[in-house]
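Q: Sequence in, structure out?
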Amino acid sequence: MKSSKNNLVIVIVAIFASYCVAFNLFKVASTSTLIMEAFNVNSQEVGSLVSVTGLVGLIFAIPSGALVTKFGTRAIGIFAVGCSFLGSVIGSFAPSFEILLASRFLEGVSIGAIPTILPPIIVENIDSKKQSIFMGFFTCFAGVGQIIIFSLTNSLINIEDPYSFTNVWHFSSIFIGIALLLWILFVKNAQAKSNKKSEKIDMKKGFMNPLVWVMCLITFLSIAGFNGGTNYTMNYCEQMSGDPLLANDLATIRSFMMIASSILVGLIIAPFNTKKRGIFLFVFSVLILISFAIMWQYTDKTQALISMLIIGFSISAHPTVLVSLTPAISKDPRYTAITNSFLGIGQNLGAMSVGAISGRILEAYGFDVLSVVYICFAIVIVIGTFLIYLGIRKNNA
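A: Exactly. Output:
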């Protein structure tokens, strides 16, 4: 029976593990200057520590849905969180930059797997009316990880000791290790149920569903836009007010709003059925259009604050609803893990594309042209979301 104490423990452990794994997303950014000094490397080489996790995450996200469908969330989760733990431990004691870079390959596996593993666990263990609440707690995992790491880094490092960056790695290793142990002890396989029990699962059907490709596209565009907005806020603030440090305050506001949005939206949509959640999804896609339109338009701190509140809310609102709808998008619940793997693919592609798309446009044409490009992204997101809404209505007719 769903939503029993044991089921709840499984979901809480899985969400806790996602928060811990998210530490690996931000520990390089919070310690980059120390890493450069410790290993005598430049900013481009430090950047490779970030890009390699995105690349590995993308590669692993592609087969992760099929792997979860075949082996179950327990086994793939142990493998993914285990890779995260091993990578963090190796990085903690890396004697050279090359070893540190190699450790990031292991950490990248978990980044690609987590978005695929968590939703099936929630669907299997939580009553359908409460699933969106836990989806909300899950979809903010990156924001939680970012706030924790950035808040604690200054107390963990010694700016005069370059190798004190390893303290952040030690901290991550301890908590990821705890998460791995809890996963082994409590998380059981969460395999989606279907009325077609006797029919063999045809993986091709999961991959050939046109709605999952639309979902992947709009996820890619939204992440590309929001990450571009995050990465270049400092540049815009310097151009707008001459105060690049304003970007740090705005980033904190945006991160807190992302977390609040995930939880709030999860609570709001909980009582509604699939079709009505599709309407929420469309409304939040329009909010993304508004966010992209105002992203580079504020001219003072008050306008910047209002923009960050709107942007922070929409960053998490749309994916929170989208993740809750993946069983409906899948047509058959047995393919939910494959559907979620497309979410991971879109997220990783979007994150990796920031420099290639936004960076080059910004360097060549400036913020005005970049704004137009983002608005075009958002229009495609709105159209794609409407197609998903129509598909959901058809699947649940």
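The chain has a mean pLDDT of 87.
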